User: What shape does this take?
Amino acid sequence: MILFHDFRRALALAGLGLLSLAAPASAQDLVATGTLTFDHFAAPTGGVHMPAAYAGLRWDNSDWHAMSVASNPANTFLALSGTAATLAGEGGQNFYFDGAAFWSRRGLDANGSFYFYLMRDGVVVYDGRNDPNGRQVFDATPRRFVPNYYGSVDYVAIVFTQGGGDWDHLAMDDVKLRSLADGTLLRPFSLLTVPFSFSGSRTSTTFNAATGVYSATFSGKGDSSLAGRVSGTLTFSVDYRLQGGAAFVTGGRWSLVTTSRDRPPFTASGAIAAGPVLAANLNGTLAPGSIDVRMNFGDPTWPVSALFNLPMDAKGRVKGSYSLTYPYIP
Assistant: This one.
């Protein structure tokens, strides 16, 4: 699955030069490709609220303030005065958000954390609170943080789960953006299928009496020597209705967290398609047979899917192989 991460990185070949920010962007300006440094503001040490429209983004609903410090007045950055830490595309424009530098302005107790929250066309496409690797821990040293999501967005927010105690010392600078035009593919998609092996077991079976739906949860390890020695933990739940000796799949969920020796971890999730029929016992547990399900990627703009056909024994152990199909530029 890490190959999808590499594919998305390949789209970033367009250079990220400094934006020319001589004046605030008008309502007609597009989100530009570049790095927002905010240094031309020459902001006071007490801070000044960001203008309503700037660099193709809306800032009027945010609590971001441009400010500087007395020891370095030429360096302007953004600081929060409240928990509304948002960036939104002017007029709902889509753009790619390639992260920003974050740090704490406190000398003492400089640690804190936040989560990225991304939307496109009114739909949440990434919520870091649902990502095992989504917590972004910052300290007094500026570091670049990038959400574990690589599609286009029109809304970027930062959320806090500590009762708001970390927002009042968070600083941000060097915001990297790419316009949708600069991020589009130069060549059409082709689909590449990579085989993965999987070994795991059924960890639980639950029943919802209100809906008559069972849910069998599996967890295990997936590996692919053809994908840069990528390994990961795959967890999926198959929802099904019992009818005689068969279980009719009504849906389900899956998540995959991959690791590699030379690449950062990558997390993906999505839904399991309805339709397949599985063998089942009279008590509702799945019977020995095969798990035949299709995983669909959570972001519909990326046609990523995986087809399972894995044999399962009487103890719920599953071992076999599946294929992962993902977009690729040859």
Remarks:
- The domain at 11-183 is CATH 2.60.120 (Jelly Rolls).
- The helical segments are 2-10, 180-183.
- The longest strand covers residues 190-208.
